[in-house]
Amino acid sequence: MDNRSVFIQGMFKLLIIVSLPLSAFFGFLALASQTSQSSQLLAEPSLVLRIPLGVRQWTDIGSVMEPVLQIPVKTLLGFENTEFVLDSGAVISSLPRNWAEKIGKDLAYAKRISFKGFGNTLSFAYQSDMTVRLGTENVDLPVVFTESEGTRALLGRKGVFDQYSIVFDHTNKVMEIRK
């Protein structure tokens, strides 16, 4: 064997000796990265509430799934279940004006605000807060008490949509609130 053949064989062996540990190292890094990413993808926010979606019949448009839920609201006499519509179009939660007294709020000390609703109609309300129970947790939420008669209780974005993940599962006809 000449010197050139010995040199080429030596370089080949050196290449194998260096590349095997490097390949193993980078393979381990790739596997660790995939495992880390997949565990992050599998991590789900914890379920707070699962509520069946209601169905409402409209004269002109037919049946529509409606996110109506019963939530306990803290009153002076304890918690009282109250029907809310989960409304992503509502900036803040709202209750009819008569609820202020039930939960111990004096509207004389509450800030009176105006806002525009459906059809750009101007409404007035009193800004305060309420405590509700979501799952096993008591949560303080901002609320307005509306002056308009016959309004429904709404669970709005502030304090809900910015703190929880809301999932509408139309296949199973349920709504989930996750933390």
UniProtKB/TrEMBL annotation:
GO molecular function, one term: aspartic-type endopeptidase activity
PROSITE patterns (alphabetical): ASP_PROT_RETROV
Transmembrane segments: none
Superkingdom of source: Bacteria
Start and end residues of each Peptidase A2 domain: 82-159
Gene Ontology biological-process annotations: proteolysis
Keywords, ordered alphabetically: Hydrolase
Protein's name according to its UniProt entry: Peptidase A2 domain-containing protein
